[in-house]
Amino acid sequence: MNTAMLVMVAACFVAAFASGMAGFAFNLIAAGILFHWLPPQQTAPVLVLGSFLIQLGTIRAVLPAMRWAVLRPYVIGGVLGTPFGVLVLKVTSAEAITVGIGALLVVYAGYTLARIALKRAPHAFTTGPLPDAGIGFAGGVLGGIGGFSGALPAMWGDLKGLRKDEARAIFQPFIIAMQALAAIGLLAGGFFTAESAMMLLACLPALAAGAWLGVRAYGLIPAEGFRLVLLTLLLLSGLSLVL
């Protein structure tokens, strides 16, 4: 097994464990590791399908809270945005994408850490379908670039003051839909190769083991403390990618 394959397997295990433990950000965690070693164009197929499998395996818990009328604007926006993301991945340099994802890591982790530190309840507000569709469009673009579709809807739900179950009932099925669409776009764009297929097969045991251990650890380790450590690492990783 070559170095690239080892790095991919290790990153998928760490990201799957963290996602199983903290319940979020598989792609952001994996990208924070992988983009120091591999170009986004090479990692995108594995990250998209890895995230799809993990989210699909845990979707049952949010099915009772799903409301299609609420979810629809996000999905419509995401469907329109995903092809643009695949196009960005195809025509943009690896360095530019790496810096962009690093900036997303900094914004996501920095915003969430600030919210936790300030201990302020979000100012709940309602929006029409158009702003929600705009967030879905931007999430679709990020999904097409490498499966990063969940970050913006998650932050948007937090800004809107949604309960945890309400927010998850939006962003988790949204992620599944966008990852499936991104996988089709990546396949059509020629990003799926024999090497990416081998990487995905090699990562499947790491994904399963990491997610299982993460879920098991959820009952043993204080989840909020683990989340703080994880967000701090994401912030530092994002800064390192930007710099």
Automatic annotation (TrEMBL):
One Pfam assignment: TauE
Span-the-membrane segments of this chain are: 6-34, 46-63, 69-89, 96-114, 134-157, 169-192, 198-218, 225-242
User: Where is the major localization of this protein?
Assistant: membrane
- Superkingdom of the source? Bacteria
Instruction: Report the locations given in the UniProt record.
Output: Cell membrane
On whether Membrane is a keyword of this UniProt record, the answer is yes
Q: What InterPro entries is this protein classified in?
A: TM_pro_TauE-like, TSUP
| Record's bilayer topology term | Multi-pass membrane protein
UniProt keywords, alphabetically: Cell membrane, Membrane, Transmembrane, Transmembrane helix, Transport
Question: GO CC terms on record?
Answer: plasma membrane
What protein family is recorded? Answer: Belongs to the 4-toluene sulfonate uptake permease (TSUP) (TC 2.A.102) family.
Q: Which protein is depicted?
A: Probable membrane transporter protein
Q: Which organism is it from?
A: Falsiroseomonas algicola
